[in-house]
Amino acid sequence: MTKLWSWGALLFGLVYFTLPLIGMTEFSLKMRRGEYSFDAYAKVLADPKFQETFSYSVLMALVTIAFGALLVVPTAFWVRLKMPWARPYVEFITLLPLVIPAIVIVFGYIRLYNTSSWLPLTGTAMGTNILLMFGYATLALPYMYRAVDTGLRTIDVATLTEAAQSLGAGWGTILARIILPNVLVAVLSGAFLTFAIVIGEFTMAALLNRPAFGPYMQLLGANRAYEPAALAVIAFGITWACMGLIQLITRFSKHTRAQR
Amino acid sequence: MAFLDIEHLEKAFGILRVVKDFNLGIQKGEFVSLLGPSGCGKTTVLRMVAGFETPNSGAIRIDGKDVVNQRPNQRNIGMVFQAYALFPNLTVAQNVGFGLKIKGVGRADQDIRVAEMLRLIGLPDLGNRYPFQLSGGQQQRVALARALAVKPSVLLLDEPLSALDAKIRVSLRTEIREIQQKLGITTIFVTHDQEEALSISDRIVVMNGGIAEQVGAPFEIYNRPNTKFVANFVGTLNTFDAAVLDPAAGRVSLAGTEITLPQPLVSLTGDRIALALRPEALHLGRFEGREVVLPGVITDVHFLGSVIRVRADVAGASVALDTFNRADTPPPPVGAAAEVSFSAADLIVLGG
């Protein structure tokens, strides 16, 4: 009887998640009347605006990931090693972006860094890009920090650090050659989550007036019928590809093979 | 002056003083064990030598140079940890070569040294394996090779055998001692296992409550313990209650039998003191050279193969004594009356 219920729940879950997807995919293929076609996809992919905004967002995502990793890995390492008492506070701070809306952060940015402020970042495109990157890094912080912290939990940070120190290693070497390679899978899963967030982010990019993918999707959704569905399927595909990559990289990292 | 000199070392965590006025001089090439129960401060002393803890006061000198203010990566010390601490992302060869790479040793010299180290620990073919592909004993040997590869001035071993099973523990400790003697490297070994400490050390420091209770060769520590704690912690001990008759002459009364101890006592006449004997100092039956004979009753017999451990009630105390197995002499039955003999010279006075 219990088994029957489990199967029922599973089936319900599957239908709940897949039915809208199937419906959306089917709709995205119906641009040509009376037959299925990839016209909507072709149209989206051929749009120079799509290419422009997508490559901009991909670049922003990569920069955000690099900055996030450089910020989070040493911080999480240091908190684990030297300031375990500070962990709850750091965790609280990293969770703040989940409760403070992006719009509050971006208005704060605009007020602090406008052209008449002491640091007029919004005065140039590059300055605004940097500001946007910081905003993205803040939004991704809860995911990145948690991923890295969980990764650090799987290794004996204190003893490995001491072992490396006794062999003459300084902090930079310890982080780059011992800690980072051992939490690489965790950093990558944080990185893919960051990627997914940056690709879909609307508020910050729109208010800072940057040509990102999020505002483009919104614009397209407001003006077209079939293309938004095609775009949603593409975005979904990218997310799944990211998930696949996490799995693949996990499998390729040699030293962790036995644990799986 | 000793090669490694520790003087008046003090360490407190908050209000808890874990190491109190610790002094020790270790000669070059000497193997010294810090032995004591958990929380006695032995690991803290080791970590201060390594540089992972900063002493509140005191000096640590290696080859005449004070290292207290040096960072751990400047001290040229090799350390082996209880949890192996091999870098999981590096192969065995890369682990062993890690310190050399940091020192800037050339690739070719690195390879030669790594191969040499792997031969030394008897794992010449495992260079390409990852730590997770090795057994615990193999991992600890690699950790030892890694610590030794950089030719450290001092080798520190922090309970390196505790995580291994009994058989590997015994063979690896012999191997560690052999390698240490071969390289002539000054070594501090921290352990709570007295057998380990007794079997491989040149000298043992027995620690209790942050204090070095006794420093001496294993033979001395075992046979002539200075304090009650050392006597109880190292080896098995049978204790008897005795009354002092003449402290200057060392005469005491043990269960009505008068015994003259080889040394005078500091107690007063009529005082009760505790006397102790190792199990191997007691003999079942009368024996030449064992002048004190006490009657007793056999309460328990454990046949351990080459040795038979017998428990008997003697002079109001339950004592353990060891006899060698002989094929022509079966062990005594439980409940049988027996005589137990020993030499007064073997008696250890506890707190007398």
From TrEMBL, chain A:
UniProt-annotated location(s): Cell inner membrane; Cell membrane
Keywords annotated in UniProt: Cell inner membrane, Cell membrane, Membrane, Transmembrane, Transmembrane helix, Transport
Primary location group: membrane
Domain of life: Bacteria
Signal peptide span: none
Domain ABC transmembrane type-1 residues, every copy: 54-247
One BP annotation, GO: transmembrane transport
Transmembrane annotation, as ranges: 7-29, 54-77, 89-112, 124-145, 183-208, 228-250
Topology within the bilayer: Multi-pass membrane protein
Any one annotated GO CC term: plasma membrane
Keyword Membrane listed: yes
Family: Belongs to the binding-protein-dependent transport system permease family.
Protein name listed in UniProt: Binding-protein-dependent transport systems inner membrane component
TrEMBL record, chain B:
Keyword Mitochondrion recorded: no
Pfam families per UniProt: ABC_tran, TOBE_2
Keywords: ATP-binding, Nucleotide-binding, Transport
InterPro entries on file: AAA+_ATPase (IPR003593), ABC_SmlMolc_Importer (IPR050093), ABC_transporter-like_ATP-bd (IPR003439), ABC_transporter-like_CS (IPR017871), Mo/tungstate-bd_C_term_dom (IPR008995), P-loop_NTPase (IPR027417), Transp-assoc_OB_typ2 (IPR013611)
SUPFAM superfamilies: MOP-like, P-loop containing nucleoside triphosphate hydrolases
SMART domains: AAA
GO molecular function: ATP binding; ATP hydrolysis activity; transmembrane transporter activity
GO cellular component: ATP-binding cassette (ABC) transporter complex
GO biological process, one term: quaternary ammonium group transport
Domain ABC transporter: 4-234
Name recorded for this polypeptide: ABC transporter related protein
Origin species: Rhodobacter ferrooxidans
